[in-house]
Amino acid sequence: MKQTFEPELFPDETSNDAGMNDTDESADKTYDFEPLFEKLATSDFRRKFSLKRVDREYIISKGMDTIRHHAEDFVRKRLAPAVIPNDGKQTPMRGHPVFIAQHATACCCRGCFAKWHHIPAGRELTTAEQRYAVAVLMEWIRRQMPR
Length: 147
Ligand SMILES: [Zn+2]
Fold this sequence. Notes:
Layout lengths: L19 H4 L10 H7 L3 H4 L5 H10 L1 H16 L17 H8 L5 H8 L9 H18 L3
Bound molecules: zinc ion.
The site of zinc ion has 5 residues, from helix 7.
């Protein structure tokens, strides 16, 4: 562990494991998702995705915090890079509830992400953009869970 203080050149870059707890509060409170979710609901393709019982049970057994970490991981590794050789095909249609959420919310690939969320492809996503994608995914999952 680093003991010495270093000024932060990139204060936003705290989304690696160590700093994650600090960002929970700010993770989704500033977003108004209503317009996005209303628009997604008009897409026959997007709205056909839903969580199955097995997905909900998985989420309950893992807990939302763990699911959020999975979402952060998937976004960082599979959506954020500037170049994704198999973009458009990198997100399976099943196997993890976050994958389903990615298709349902158009966070599945950079093509869809650009079209629906107006964040251009071809460059690495910023930390704030990754946080936004995770917030979208978690909001969709939350809406799929029983109250
Ligand atoms: Zn896509």
